Fold this protein.
Amino acid sequence: MADNCIFCKIVRGEIPAAKLYEDEELLAFRDISPAAPLHFLVIPKKHISGPAAVTAEDERLIGRMLRIGSETAKKEGIEDFRVVFNNGAQAGQTVFHIHMHILGGRDLNWPPG
Ligand code: AMP
């Protein structure tokens, strides 16, 4: 856990979030500034700063993020969705606690901006 990390604060319950899924190691919650009709984030409770900081010991956890994200999208009625991980400021990462975006519910352009 990182003291000043906004997503660690959500994990600790210090900041509210619209939670869609929670277990002992993962949390899914709606993005506060949705870019699509369905837009939520899946995070590990463990603080990992971003995709490039994932270690071999995290591989199972990162795989679970994909499965739980897909199942959560389905529960929200969405079968077609985009999965995004931003790594680094130039790629658009603004929160340095790894998170998987799931976006769906509208046509999505490719390539993204
Ligand atoms: P990224 O730009 O990939 O780092 O994505 C960070 C995402 O976190 C953005 O889409 C923000 O809208 C979202 N976000 C930031 N703060 C919160 C919060 N308190 N609750 C939910 N989503 C948040």
Q: What stands out?
A: The radius of gyration is 13 Å. Residues 6, 15, 17, 29, 31-33, 41, 86, 92-95 surround adenosine monophosphate (CB under 6 Å). The CA atoms of residues 82 and 103 lie 5 Å apart.
